[in-house]
Write a structure and sequence with these properties.
- With 616 residues, the protein is mainly alpha-helical.
- It is built from 26 helices and five strands.
- It has a three-stranded antiparallel β-sheet with strand order 1-3-2.
- A hairpin with a 3-residue loop joins strand 4 and strand 5.
Length: 616
Amino acid sequence: MFKGGFIQNLPKIYGLYTGGFLVFILLMAVLESAGVSAASIGIMFVAFTVAIYALIGYLSRTIQVDAYYVAGRQVPTVFNGMATAADWMSGASFVAMAGGIYFGGYTYMAFLVGWTGGYVLVSTLLAPYLRKFGCYTVPDFIGTRYGGNLPRFCATLVLVLASFTYVTAQINATGTIASRALQIPFELGVWVGLISILLCSMLGGMRAVTWTQVAQYIVLITAYLIPVFWMGSKLGNPFPHFMLGDEVQRLAELEASAGLIKNSAADIKAAGVPGGLKYISTPHSAVPAGGMAVWKYLSLAICMMVGTASLPHILMRYFTTPSVRAARKSVAWSLFFIFLLYSSAPMLATLSKLALMDPNLPTGIIGKSISEVQSIEWVQRWSEVKQVFIADFNGDGILQLNEWFMRGDVVVLATPEVAGLPFVISGLVFAGGMAAAMSTADGLVLAISNALSHDIYYKIIDPKADTRKRLLVARVLLVIIGAAGAYIASFRLTSILGSVAWAFDFAMSGLFFPLVLGVWWKRATREGAIAGIVTGILSGLFYLLWVYPKFSVPIFGGVNEPFLGIDHLRFGLIGAPICLVVMVVVSLMTKEPSPTTQKMVDDLRIPTGKPILGKQ
């Protein structure tokens, strides 16, 4: 049946894997109909899929440097596109994005616009050229292009800051899912998630992460699309994407009839609502008007777009392709696989809210008696883990729209139950959410450990270290970084979406222009790169930690807003321009790079020929 090597048989291998996973779903459906408890089904879904990922990680173990850092540079374009999509569609995309649209409506579409638009920048400005360079990590490019260990060290610090912020969000997502699926406390769930992540990546590095991410993509996209199509079928259209406008209009009518009331912070606190839970206070279909609203939408989209093109764990994926041409084609496949989920997120948010609000549907709860709603099984389950809360502000015993509180991060996870679908679909969504969060966390933890082991330990501390020692250091760092991320995530310092936005802003503040100018401007110097990276990241941090919390000014009609409307989700708009200006000015004030370096930059932009560093 299998002729040739592993790479040649990838379509057959993952075809069998997909078929086996569908059979497992049907088996879980049979068990549910036979009376197996929801808790058992949730546990089996999560345990089965994590065990498969761990097996792939074990089978992909390696002691070869190229295989560990860049999967041997032999990943085909379609499969690299799937792996990149899984790496990209994190807990924020799978778990939190639809929740953001659910509560914030149109405004949150800026995340989708920015995240997908970022791949245009990746394709045109960076991915093919970084692959031609032949590096192992993003700091590897910075250090070699600009010369010396200091640029490499500065780039590594930015990578660690951005990636660690991002990875805490993913471990947060795994904790949220594990706490519900396994019926355990969130604080324990994050450690269950961490162990699952390490099982996938520790032994095989990038090679293991790549093949587990392909498997995880199959699970997460199946888990995301089935509820959407199923709920659409219940409303009369199995392809609900084509009726989104009609459903949003219906939702607008329901919200108008319900009367959105904004609760005061004092009333919410007095009702004992747990921290982090939200209520619907913004019309789902409302398009904010005014200059400030337009600026907020555009600025958030810009930050997400530029941040996407700066994220080291995404750029690393294009180091694994066989050629420069394959890297460019791989970006196109990445966008296709990402589109399948992103085009469905607004539909999922809309259908979920309709299921909750429409009195003509058996699942509608708004307008029913609070005692009746509290007796619903799924409401009880989510209330027990403090993800749902009901507050009877007016004391009439009837559930109003502003009296229903839910954590935005669990909207996708709860939607199958909200819509009255069989629990097997909830178990599938739990598995998909775990796959999304784990796949991104795998890439992030690996990006950090690879940068520290290769760019700090091997390139700076011990250049004579043998392969065994280098890989041992990488694996130890993998465990330490993961444990630190789980510890921080257990405190839930901010939402999943908030943590992810910070990571994008950190990356764009310190890495975007050093990378782009490193490829496209021969005159960029070592001193300019160092000054740009340092001032960019420090100015962004300074604004986030000191300026934003303390200052607001009248802008666009006299409303007090942060400086130029730049809040904690957009501070990259401070750091990145400062990085660019400083880098250009310092580069022009210092001696131009050597002729050898300038020729290297010229050769870098020629798609054919050997890699700059001589690695295949």
